[in-house]
Amino acid sequence: MARVAFIGLGHMGGGMAPNLAKAGHEVRAFDLSEEALAHAVERGCKRAKSTDEAVEDADAVVTMLPAGKHVAEVYRSHVFGKAPKSAILIDCSTIDVATAKAVEEEAQGQGYTMVDAPVSGGIAAAEGGTLTFMVGGGEQGFQQAREYLEKMGKAVIHAGEAGSGQAAKICNNMLLGASMAATCEAFVLAQKLGLDLQTFYDISSKASGQSWSMTSYCPVPGVGPETPADRGYEGGFAAALMLKDLKLAMEAAQKAGAYTPMGGEAADLFQRFVDRGGGNKDFSALIKMIDDSWKT
Ligand code: NAD
C-alpha cells in the first residue's frame, strides 16, 4: 500500500481518487471545495486539511485541476519542497504544453520525477476506472506512474518526453472536434437532401466517411448506439471542455508554426455554440446550431 496525495476532486478527480483507494492505497485527498472533498471521503479517501498536508510523506502525488495556472500554482507553492523527493508527481489535468514542460523542468531542477498524464474518457470512465492515459516524461517516471495510473484506467501509453502527453491529448481532441463538426454537417446535409438518417448512418458507418464521431458517438438521436444525443445531449463531454481543448490546440499550433485550418474552424464553431449558451451540453449538440431547424 502506498500513500497517494490526490489534489482536485471535481467531476474527474472525484471518480479517479476512490479507484486508487479501492486498489488498497491510502489516498489523502484535498480540494478547495468542501463538497467535493466530502464526497471523496465518503468514497474511501482520507481528508487532508491542505495540499501541503496531503503531500507530506507521499509516495505519489496526483493532480486533476482545471487549467495550467492552477497546476503551476499548486506545484510551485504546495508540492515542491513539501513532498518527499522520492515521490512521483503525476499531473492528469489537461493543460497547455508550455506550462506542462515548464513545471516538469522545475520539478526536475528540484530533484523530483514528474510526468504529465492527461486522460481521454469522461466522467463515466473516471468513475469506472477505464480512462486512457497519455504520459509525457522520462522512462523511469513513466514506469513509476504506470503503477498508479493502471488502477484508474484501461490503457496507459508513453507518448514521449515531458509535455508529450499534453501534445497527444490536444492533437487527439482537435481531430475529435473537427470530425464531430464534419459529422454534424454531413447529417444535416443528408437530411436536406431527403436521405433517411438511419440509412445514411448504415451506409457511411461502413464506408469511407466512417469515424468514431459517427459510429460510436452519433450526434443524431435514435441513430446508432445510445449516445448523449439520446439523452437530450446531457452528460457526456461538455462543449465548453471541447472548446478549452481546441483553444489549447490552436495556441500550441501557433507556437509550433503548424497550419491547422480545420482545427481553427472547429474552434470557431464551438466558440459560437458556447456563446449561445450550449457550454454545458454534450459537444455533439453542435448539430443543433448547424441546423437550427433540427427537431430534438
Ligand atoms: P472540475 O472543475 O470539475 O474539477 C477541478 C477541481 O479542482 C475542482 O473541484 C476545484 O475545486 C479543484 N481545485 C481548483 N484549484 C485547486 C487548488 N488550488 N487546490 C485544490 N483543488 C483545487 O474539472 P474536471 O471536469 O474534473 O476536469 C479536470 C481536468 O480534467 C481539466 O483539466 C479537464 O480539462 C480535464 N478533463 C475533463 C474531462 C471531463 O469530461 N470533465 C475529460 C477529460 C479531461
Secondary structure blueprint with pairings:
Layout: E1 3-7, H1 13-22, E2 26-30, H2 34-42, E3 46-47, H3 51-55, E4 60-63, H4 68-79, E5 88-91, H5 97-109, E6 113-116, E7 119-120, H6 123-128, E8 131-136, H7 139-149, E9 153-160, H8 164-192, H9 197-204, H10 212-215, H11 239-256, H12 261-278, H13 286-290
Parallel strand pairs: 1-2, 1-4, 2-3, 4-5, 5-6, 8-9
Antiparallel strand pairs: 7-8
Helix pairs in contact: 1-2, 4-5, 8-11, 8-12, 11-12
The structure holds nicotinamide-adenine-dinucleotide (NAD).
List its salient traits.
296 residues, alpha/beta, Rossmann fold, N-(1-d-carboxylethyl)-l-norvaline Dehydrogenase, domain 2, six-stranded parallel β-sheet, 14% strand, binds nicotinamide-adenine-dinucleotide
Q: For the record, what is the CATH homologous superfamily label of the largest domain?
A: NAD(P)-binding Rossmann-like Domain
Highest CATH level, the class of the largest domain: Alpha Beta
Report the structural category.
alpha/beta
What is the number of helical segments per DSSP (H or I, 4+ residues)?
13
Strand content: 5-15%
Q: What is the overall silhouette? A: elongated
Q: In the CATH hierarchy, what is the architecture of the largest domain at level 2?
A: 3-Layer(aba) Sandwich
What's the N-to-C terminus distance? Answer: 50 Å
- CATH topology (level 3) name of the largest domain: Rossmann fold
Bound molecules: nicotinamide-adenine-dinucleotide
Provide the low-confidence segments as ranges. none
Total number of domains: 2
Instruction: Determine Rg (CA atoms, Å).
Output: 20 Å
Task: Describe the main β-sheet briefly.
Answer: 6 strands, parallel
Family: Belongs to the HIBADH-related family.
Enzyme class: oxidoreductase
GO molecular function: 3-hydroxyisobutyrate dehydrogenase activity
InterPro entries: 3-OH-isobutyrate_DH-rel_CS, 6-PGluconate_DH-like_C_sf, 6PGD_dom2, 6PGDH_NADP-bd, HIBADH, HIBADH-like_NADP-bd, HIBADH-related, NAD(P)-bd_dom_sf
